[in-house]
Specification:
The chain is 63% helix and 11% strand. The protein has 21 helices and 10 strands. Strands 2, 3, 4, 5, 6 and 7 form a 6-stranded antiparallel beta sheet that branches. The protein is globular and about 80 Å long.
C-alpha cells in the first residue's frame, strides 16, 4: 500500500506541476495577481508530494519489499542498512526520482526565499521551473517508473552493484544532483527575465545566490566523485577524462563563468546578454550530462539506463529546453539595453578575460567528449579521445586564466591601474619565482614544467592572501587591520578562499603528477619492497567473510627507517549474489597530505599482484576543492545577498519598457 501511495503522490506532483506551469505564466501575461499568486503554494504542494513519493521508495528498499521491481533489481536482505538507503538512488529509476525531488525542492525554496522578488518575476520563475518539472515527471512515470510491481514477488533480491556499495554513493550523487538541478534556477530566472523583459543589475543580485549554491554543491559533488573513484576503483588516479566525469566538469566551468559575469552585471549593469546566455548554457550542459549518463549512449558504472526509449525521451527534453530557450534568447537579445562601459584594464576586463578562457576550456572539453559519439553516430567509426587531447587543450587554456586570477581583485572597477597592482603583488611575484627556482634546484632531473606549476600555485595562493591583506591594511595600518577584517564583506572572504583553494589544487595536481612513484609487481608472503622512503613487507594473506561478500586480504607492515609506521590491508572482495569482484584499496597518509596507496590484484603463482603508489601532496587536490566550496558557502552568508536586490536606477527603469517590447 505504501508503494502505491508513493506512485500516486508522484502523479499528483505532476498534476500540480502542470498547474504551476500554466497559471502563473498566464497571470504574468494578463497582469492577474490572483493567477500569479497560485505559484508559491502550488510549488510547496508539489514538493510535498514528491517528498512522499521518495519516502515511499526509501521505505520499500529499507523493508526489502522485493515485490517492487526496483528493489528486487538493486537490493538484498543482507545488505548493510546504509547501502539499502543509498541504493534508492544507486539505479536509474531511483536516481531520476532523486533528480525530480531535488528539482521540486529548489522550486519550493524559491517560493519561500523569493518573497522579496517582484511578483511577476517570481511567478514567471516558478512557471518556467514547472516546465522542467513536468518534462521530467513524465519521463519518470512513462519510462522509468520506480514503483513497478512484480506479479510474483521473489524471496530475495539481486543486490546492488558491488562497486556502488560504498559510503561514496550516499554522498556523491545527491551533491552532484544538487549542483546539476540547482542551475535550473538560474535557467528559470534567465527565461523568466526574457519573458518579462526585466533584465538589470537587480536581476543579477537575485540570481547570484542560487547560482552560487548550485556551484558549491557541484564542486563538492565532483570532488567527492573524484575521491570515490580514487580509492574504490584501484586505478590510483584522481581524474581520467572519462565522458561521465567531463559531463559534470562542463556545467562547473560554465557555472564558474556565470558566477563571475553576474558580478559584473550586478556591479556595473554590464554583460547582460552574455550573462543570460551563460545561465541558459550552464543548465543546458547539466541536461546534456543527464542525457549522456541516463540515455545508455555511454557504458559506465554511472550509466544505469539501457532502454533506447529513455534516451530518445531525454534527448527530446534536451532539444525542447535548449532549443526553446535559445530561440527565445535570439528573439529577445536584440531588445536588451547596453550596460556600463569600462576600460580593458579594469575589474570588469579581468572578469571578461576570466569568462573567455573558462568558456573556451569548456568548449574544448565539450568537443573532446562529444566528437567520438557524433562520429560513431554518423559514420559508424570509433575513436578514443583520452587524456593527451585534454591535457594539450584544456591545460594551456587554463594557464593564462590562472596567471591573471590574482591580478583581477586588485583592479578598480571601470578603469584600473596596472602599475599599482604590480607594485602590490611584487612580493608575491618574487616569492613565486623563488619557489620555482628552489623547486627546480631540489628536483633536478624531474619533469621540467613541475617547478613552474609550484610557482603558479604560490602565485595563486599568496595572491589571494595578499588581496585580503591589502584590503584590511594589514601592513600599512596594522592597528586597524582587525577592525577592517571584521567589517569586510563576507563575499570578499569567500572569494579569497575560492582563489586560495585553486592554488592548493594546483599544488596537489603538480606534486602528484610529477613526483609520484609506482610499483607493479607480484609479491609472496615474507617479501619486502621499497617504495619512496618506506619498506613494505607482505606478512600474510587471509580470507574473511563479510555480510554479503567474501574477501581475500593482504596484510602489509609499513616501516620507515626500520620503525613500523602503518599496517595496511588491501583486499579483493567477491559479492556472493552478483558474483562480482571489487578492489578495496588500503591507504595511509603521511606528512599531512601525502599518501601510500596499495591496490590488490589476482593471486599468481603463490603470490599476489600488487599495485603500490607513493603520492606526494595528493590530498591537496581535494582539500583545494573543499576550500573552494567553503569559500562559496561563506559568500552565501553575505548580508547583501539576504536583504534583497538593489533597486534599479531611473535610467535602467526607463529602459525596461523598451526591453519588454
Amino acid at each position: 500500500m505504501i508503494v502505491e501511495v508513493g506512485h500516486y503522490a508522484l502523479v499528483l506532483a505532476l498534476a500540480l506541476a502542470l498547474v504551476q506551469s500554466v497559471l502563473p505564466i498566464w497571470g504574468v501575461k494578463a497582469a492577474d495577481a490572483r493567477l500569479m499568486a497560485v505559484a508559491r503554494p502550488v510549488a510547496w504542494g508539489q514538493f510535498g508530494f514528491v517528498a512522499i513519493s521518495f519516502a515511499a521508495l526509501t521505505w520499500a528498499h529499507v523493508a526489502s519489499d522485493f515485490s517492487v521491481a526496483n528493489v528486487f533489481e538493486n537490493s538484498h536482505s543482507q545488505k548493510p542498512m546504509i547501502y539499502k538507503i543509498s541504493g534508492v538512488w544507486g539505479n536509474h529509476e531511483g536516481s531520476m526520482l532523486l533528480w525530480v525531488s531535488i528539482l521540486a525542492l529548489f522550486g519550493a525554496m524559491v517560493a519561500w526565499f523569493g518573497r522579496n522578488l517582484p511578483k511577476t518575476l517570481l511567478a514567471a520563475v516558478l512557471g518556467v521551473q514547472a516546465w522542467v518539472a513536468v518534462a521530467f515527471y513524465l519521463f519518470v512515470l512513462l519510462t522509468s517508473n520506480p514503483f513497478a510491481r512484480i506479479l510474483r514477488a521473489p524471496m530475495e533480491g539481486r543486490d546492488l552493484n558491488p562497486i556502488l556499495q560504498d559510503p561514496g554513493l550516499a554522498i556523491h550523487p545527491p551533491l552532484l544532483y544538487l549542483g546539476y538541478v540547482g542551475f535550473s534556477i538560474a535557467f528559470s530566472f534567465a527565461v523568466a527575465a526574457l519573458i518579462e523583459g526585466r533584465i538589470d543589475a537587480a536581476w543579477a543580485r537575485w540570481v547570484r545566490p542560487w547560482t552560487l549554491a548550485a556551484w558549491v554543491f557541484l564542486t563538492l559533488g565532483i570532488a567527492m566523485g573524484s575521491y570515490w573513484a580514487y580509492y574504490e576503483l584501484g586505478w590510483g588516479g584522481w581524474w581520467f577524462w572519462d565522458p561521465v566525469e567531463n559531463a559534470s566538469l562542463m556545467p562547473w566551468l560554465a557555472g564558474t563563468a556565470l558566477l563571475h559575469s553576474s558580478i559584473v552585471m550586478e556591479k556595473r549593469d554590464a554583460l547582460k546578454v552574455w550573462t543570460i546566455l551563460l545561465a541558459i548554457l550552464t543548465f543546458s550542459l547539466s541536461l546534456l550530462g543527464t542525457f549522456l549518463v541516463r540515455s545508455g549512449v555511454l557504458t559506465s558504472v554511472h550509466a544505469f539506463a539501457t532502454d533506447p526509449a529513455r534516451g530518445v525521451f531525454i534527448l527530446g527534453i534536451l532539444v525542447l529546453f535548449v532549443g526553446g530557450s535559445l530561440t527565445l534568447f535570439a528573439a529577445r537579445a536584440g531588445a536588451l539595453t547596453k550596460g556600463g562601459l569600462f576600460a580593458p584594464i579594469s575589474r570588469e576586463g579581468a572578469l571578461v578575460f576570466n569568462n573567455l578562457f573558462l568558456t573556451a576550456a569548456c568548449a574544448a572539453v565539450f568537443i573532446g567528449t562529444l566528437y567520438p559519439l557524433l562520429l560513431e553516430a554518423t559514420t559508424g567509426g570509433k575513436i578514443s579521445v583520452g587524456a593527451p587531447f585534454f591535457e594539450m587543450t584544456f591545460g594551456p587554456l587554463m594557464v593564462p586564466l590562472l596567471l591573471v586570477m590574482p591580478i583581477g581583485p586588485f583592479l578598480a572597477w571601470k578603469r584600473g591601474d596596472l602599475l599599482a597592482v604590480a607594485q602590490r603583488l611584487a612580493v608575491v611575484f618574487v616569492v613565486a619565482i623563488l619557489g620555482t627556482i628552489a623547486t627546480w634546484w631540489a628536483t633536478r632531473g624531474g619533469p621540467i614544467l613541475a617547478p613552474f606549476g609550484i610557482g603558479l600555485g604560490l602565485w595563486l595562493s599568496l595572491g589571494a592572501l595578499a588581496e585580503i591583506a591589502f584590503r584590511i591594511k594589514l601592513f600599512s595600518e596594522p592597528s586597524v587591520a582587525f577592525r577592517r577584517a571584521v567589517g569586510l564583506p563576507r563575499s570578499a572572504w569567500g572569494a579569497m578562499l575560492g582563489h586560495l583553494g585553486v592554488g592548493l589544487l594546483i599544488f596537489g595536481v603538480v606534486a602528484e603528477g610529477a613526483w609520484k612513484v609506482e610499483h607493479v609487481l607480484v609479491m609472496k608472503p615474507g617479501e619486502t619492497v621499497q617504495v619512496a622512503r618506506f619498506d613494505l613487507t607482505l606478512t600474510e594473506e587471509k580470507t574473511i567473510v563479510g555480510p554479503n561478500y567474501d574477501a581475500t586480504v593482504a596484510h602489509f607492515v609499513v616501516r620507515e627507517k626500520g620503525r613500523e609506521v602503518a599496517v595496511l590491508e588491501p583486499a579483493k572482495r567477491n559479492y556472493r549474489t552478483r558474483k562480482m569482484p571489487t578492489t578495496e584499496t588500503a591507504i595511509a597518509t603521511f606528512d599531512g597530505f601525502s599518501q601510500l596507496y596499495l591496490a590488490m590484484g589476482e593471486s599468481q603463482g603463490g603470490g599476489v599482484a600488487m599495485r603500490i603508489y607513493w603520492k606526494p601532496m595528493v590530498l591537496l587536490i581535494w582539500l583545494g576543492c573543499l576550500v573552494m566550496a567553503i569559500g562559496g558557502a561563506v559568500s552565501l552568508t553575505d548580508r547583501r545577498l539576504r536583504i534583497g536586490a538593489p533597486k534599479p536606477s531611473r535610467v535602467a527603469s526607463a529602459a525596461l519598457p523598451a526591453a519588454a517590447e
